[in-house]
Write a structure and sequence with these properties.
By secondary structure, this protein is α/β, with parallel strands linked by helices. The chain has 24 helices and 20 strands. A six-stranded parallel beta sheet has the order 3-2-4-5-7-6, sandwiched between helices. Helix 7 (about 135-150) links the parallel strand 6 (about 125-130) and strand 7 (about 155-160). The longest helix is centred in the middle third of the chain and has 19 residues, at about 330-345. About 50% of the residues are buried.
């Protein structure tokens, strides 16, 4: 009996482990939607396709499983594009079913015709069209296999007449993906050990590639007496139970991590593709290990680099490493980190007793959230406070747009996390700009019955953009936002909602908000002038801030300088 193409596609996705598909149904997608409805795959109806991609990406990152999104021809599948860039940069295994107009109309500028191959080629690991019914299962298998094995987005373009067609001879192709253990050869391991054993001040800088290698990284740090700095994306995997931790470096890191990396003579770079060259050491020998060959030596010159998984590579390297006994470099920065964190938390209080800072709100959320809660943060100050003030423990996970840097990921990511983890607490830290950009997803929360907890950090502006403008010596321009009472809007939509403006009311409000059995939104008016302080003050930003201050005074806006001083320094 002949099988319909749409059914063969969905059968293949299900066999590849897909449990959910996020999207919006439309004409050219109707047959595929009906096939999904007959399958065990759950359809999650979002209000904007971009949000669907963000949601699917968060699920795929958390579970490691292939997750699907699907859209109609033209604008429908085109709306996914920013979310697809986000997913591909995060190396999330995603398959996009981009339905297309009739094959007979392709190339004639038909209504809603879009060349999806051209659009998605630069943000995918696989992108192709099913040209004939006979290709359907085979190309779907290739797409699934590429997304899983290469850890990225596969785009499968399906003309509507193909999806409706029958497959005369459905060959049973299936998805086959192995997980090889990759370790450098003995010669490379010996050379690596020689460099590390010769070092006097060794620092480990670890990235998200260290997921699952906590024990091996800890033992390597102990053997080398090396402090461990980590990237934002490695926070969940290395910050907890780590006596060698010195925190993050980079633009939102701390001075302990920054100086531990900059002041070493030997840097062991593990699974990290950190982009900012000015945060690497100038003179140190650098040994890099990464599973992705294209990451080797692309950010900063390295002494040697090897391809390998972090866990098996360290396991093979450890017997070659001599035990160091001089712990002065290690102890200096571990103690410095403790001091940095004490100062950081001491400042996370309401300003002058009542004005709520974003950092104070984050510490309260951290205090009362579940021990295995999942957190998503909007790009800008919410994701900064998330990484600086939230404590992880090996059970909690954090998500943000740390590579693509796009707005509006927090709420959609929370939707995907909650959909795949219905029994866990999911908390979304939204900026006022990020939430309003994909505001319709509050209706998805209700429609899909997802009990996410949404905190809105309302500073009345695009806060991070304003900080950038000030450091360039500019007066803030086009950054102000005129916001509604988000708490009342949430109530009107059917969520629990509350707005808090005073510090004395916040702690009880956070407890009440997190205790809600269903979806809940806490709208908090936070201090508008709180700055994100870098780990070191560089010359150009310092001059820029001074120039901004002078311009503010000249334009009769000196009050801004006083408010900024009160919220950050007084």
């Amino acid at each position: 009996m002949a099988k319909k193409v749409a059914d063969a596609i969905i059968e293949t996705l299900q066999s590849a482990g897909v449990e959910r598909c996020y999207g919006i149904v439309g004409d050219t997608l109707n047959d595929i939607a009906h096939s999904i409805d007959k399958s065990d795959i759950q359809w999650v109806h979002v209000r904007h396709e971009e949000a669907g991609a963000f949601a699917a990406g968060a699920e795929a990152q958390l579970t490691g499983k292939l997750t699907a999104v699907a859209g109609s021809c033209g604008p429908g599948s085109l709306h996914f594009v920013n979310g697809i860039y986000e997913c591909n940069r995060n190396r999330a295994p995603i398959i996009l079913i981009a339905s297309q107009v009739l094959r007979s109309e392709l190339g004639f500028d038909f209504i809603q015709e879009v060349d999806f191959k051209e659009v998605y080629r630069g943000c995918s690991v696989y992108c192709d069209m099913i040209y004939t019914p006979e290709q359907a299962r085979r190309k779907t298998v290739i797409a699934c296999q590429a997304a899983i094995a290469k850890r990225g987005v596969a785009v499968l373009i399906v003309p509507v007449d193909v999806s409706k067609a029958d497959i005369p001879d459905d060959v049973p192709y299936g998805v086959h993906v192995s997980k090889p253990v990759i370790v450098p050869c003995d010669e490379e391991l010996d050379r690596m050990a020689d460099i590390l054993n010769a070092g006097k001040k060794i620092t480990i800088y670890a990235g998200s590639g260290c997921q699952g290698a906590h024990a091996e990284v800890m033992e390597t740090a102990r053997r080398l007496m090396a402090p461990v700095a980590h990237t934002t994306r490695a926070k969940d995997f290395l910050e907890y139970d780590n006596p060698h931790n010195v925190g993050m470096t980079g633009l939102i890191g701390g001075e302990s991590g920054y100086h531990a990396v900059r002041d070493c003579d030997t840097l062991l770079l593990l699974g990290a593709d950190f982009a900012w060259r000015q945060f690497y050491p100038d003179q140190a020998k650098i040994v890099q290990v990464d599973i992705e060959p294209t990451h080797l030596g692309r950010r900063h010159p390295v002494t040697m680099a090897s391809i390998g998984g972090i866990k098996p590579t360290l396991a093979a390297l450890l017997p070659r490493l001599a035990q160091r006994h001089d712990s002065s470099h290690h102890d200096k920065y571990v103690e410095r980190y403790k001091h940095v964190m004490q100062e950081r938390y001491a400042k996370a209080t309401p300003v002058h007793g009542d004005v709520i800072t974003g950092t104070y709100l984050t510490t309260l959320i951290d205090r009362y959230a579940a021990e295995d809660a999942l957190f998503s943060g909007d790009d800008g100050t919410p994701v900064v406070w998330l990484h600086q003030y939230l404590k992880v423990n090996g059970k909690r996970r954090t998500f943000g747009s740390l590579l693509h840097g796009t707005m509006a990921t927090a709420l959609p990511s929370a939707l995907g996390l909650q959909a795949c983890q219905p029994g866990r607490q999911v908390i979304s830290l939204c900026g006022d700009g990020g939430l309003s950009m994909l505001f319709g997803e509050l209706m998805t929360v209700i429609q899909e019955n997802l009990p996410v907890k949404i905190a809105v950090y309302d500073n009345g502006k695009l806060g991070f953009v304003e900080i950038e403008q000030k450091t360039e010596g500019l007066l803030p321009t086009f950054t102000s936002l005129k916001n509604p009472n988000f708490g009342k809007v949430a109530e009107a939509m059917g969520l629990w909602g509350r707005t808090v403006t005073k510090g004395a009311e916040l702690e009880h409000a956070v407890q009440e908000w997190l205790a809600q059995p269903g979806p809940a939104l806490l709208h908090v008016k936070v201090a508008p002038m709180q700055l994100v302080m870098p780990p070191t003050i560089e010359f150009e930003p310092a001059v820029g801030m001074a120039l901004y201050a002078a311009r503010a005074v000249l334009h009769g806006r000196g009050g801004e300088i006083w408010e900024m001083a009160k919220e950050n320094f007084i």
